[in-house]
Amino acid sequence: MEQRHLGSLKVSAVGLGCNNFGMRINAEETKNVVDAAIESGINFFDTADIYGGTKSEVFLGEALGSKAPRDCGDQVRHAH
Known about the structure:
By secondary structure, the protein is α+β, with helices and mostly antiparallel strands. It has one domain (3-79). The protein contains 3 helices and 4 strands; from the N terminus they run E-E-E-H-E-H-H. The strands form 2 sheets. It has a two-stranded antiparallel ribbon. The protein has a two-stranded parallel ribbon with strand order 3-4. Strand 3 (16-17), helix 1 (27-39) and strand 4 (45-46) form a beta-alpha-beta unit. The relative contact order is 0.21. Mean pLDDT is 86; it is low at 73-80.
């Protein structure tokens, strides 16, 4: 997957919109989508606290679980 710089972050050129997580798809389906995205090289997820009736970020966090690098927390906070 091609990578690009977004500020100080290096992200995949393709991002995954997460607005359907929690609305159209449930937690298990979200995990399947996130797993497929990661396998394809996607590391850029667009989410917000209002997506999915406020469930999108929770479902994404659960789907990522231990897959998210432990050193990315500071970068994620600064990407907001």
